[in-house]
Amino acid sequence: MRLFLLAAFCGLTLLSAAPARTQTLHIALREDADILDPTLARSYVGRIVFAGLCDKLFDIDEKLQIVPQLALSYEWSDPKTLVLHLRPNVTFHDGEPFDADAVKYSLERHLTMPGSFRRAEISVIDHVEVVDPMTARLVLKVPSSPLLAILSDRAGMIVAPKAAEAAGKDFGLHPVCTGPFQFTERVAQDRIVLDRYPGYWDTRNVHFDRVIYQPMPDSAVLMANLHTGGIDLAERVLPSDVAEAKKDPRLRVIDSPSLWYNGITFNLAHGDRAKAPIGQSALLRQAFEAAIDRQALSEVVFNGLYSPTIQAVPASSPFYVPGFEAPARDLAKAVALVKQSGVPTPVVVTMNVPNTPDNTQTAEVIQAMVREAGFDLKINLIEFASSLSAAAQGDFESFLIGWSGRADADGDLYVFLHTGAGQNDGRYSNPVVDNALDTARGLTDVAARRDQYRVLLEQERQDLPIIYLNHPVNIVGMSAKLSGFRPIPDGIVRLQGLSVSK
User: Fold this and answer.
1) CATH number of 2-30+180-258+478-500
2) Which residues of 283-299 are buried (b: 16+ CB within 10 A; e: fewer)?
3) How far apart are CA 319 and CA 501, in angstroms?
4) Which CATH superfamily is domain 58-164 in?
5) How confident is the model at residue 46 (pLDDT cuts 50, 70, 90)?
6) 3-state DSSP assignment of residue 125
7) How far apart are CA 210 and CA 436, in angstroms?
8) What's the predicted TM-score (pTM) here?
């Protein structure tokens, strides 16, 4: 009864069956999404909503291969010129035709709009040319091997030019794209509602009239709704809830490899909060890391399912650098490094932590571990979207935050570690790292790129702007009646092909 009351209080009522139940798909998100503008957005759950709302130039499949979406095909006419052949007979949700002018508009919007988080991702683009209505030419400043992968995510989402121009900075309040569903309404912290777009180019693979995304950060509420049928699919089930879910014959649990990492980002040079000792001393950050037992953290919080790491990319990635495996905890080293720093103990560190049960428990375990090395970790629980806003403004000393990962390692590294990049919240800057990232972008040979990432890692391990903790697995819980789900390593729920049996 208590869970029911909590769910109702939060606006997440356990939903009873309705006459058109098979017409509506209910998806639970672990957090509320941030702004629904692909140029300005940065949250993982927002990407899940965008999968229903905004098609991209390309997508990725189960094997991380680039596959067509709005771009049917492409060719490199030279190393700095990418020609895109676009899908015909596609329209935006407002009826405006999709064409090369729209591609040019959206890419230029990503590059020039104030606050754009896509600018650094596609900064290699010098300009975009319209060859004909169904052909766009991207002219680059330098060769870029990760560009196609970059265009398979938010940077490749094409917005309706007329709607975007009319709405300006408020476009995210009523986004207009080309996806299978169109925006209907949003109630913050409660629901995002999309309705089927009848003019969608692949409508035969869309089997719901409506999809409702509901943020459910409380895992008990999420599991209660999953068991009772209040939701059809939970995009993330905690490892600690897997055994319970598998006991219910009405549910299916699908776990699969992911591209995720969890880590701690430090504020090194972004405003007054960067002046804290942890931000100014690499020795303290090295001590903080040495005090953490990653394997124990995985066992206690994630039932041992999350792999300890010190790299942004998982071991399954061709860009993973051998020889950089997570070290064991070394408390003696941690204590010695704190002493060497010259900072009196206890060293106070404040950590912003998105307010979910797994994040809270992670922070509490780390708090206990680093205390033994002389750190006094203060945990600041904060709503997820607000935590992203605080990070963007430099309002943090350290930030427990994950990244959902990309098919190409550039998407896991450049935007966080390159000087001036959009999601480099701590304002880390090192010429060795910048050069490695820039050089890797221009190489096509995987081994040669991996060599550059080795140079990067050697420097990053000294500076520790980010302490990488572990690589999760994707764990999705869903109704046993739901079919057509495709587990793709990026964890994004594709709606095409999903259906519910009667």
Assistant:
1) 3.40.190.10
2) bbbbbbbbbbbbbebbe
3) 41
4) Dipeptide-binding Protein; Domain 1 (3.90.76.10)
5) very high
6) strand
7) 46
8) 0.89
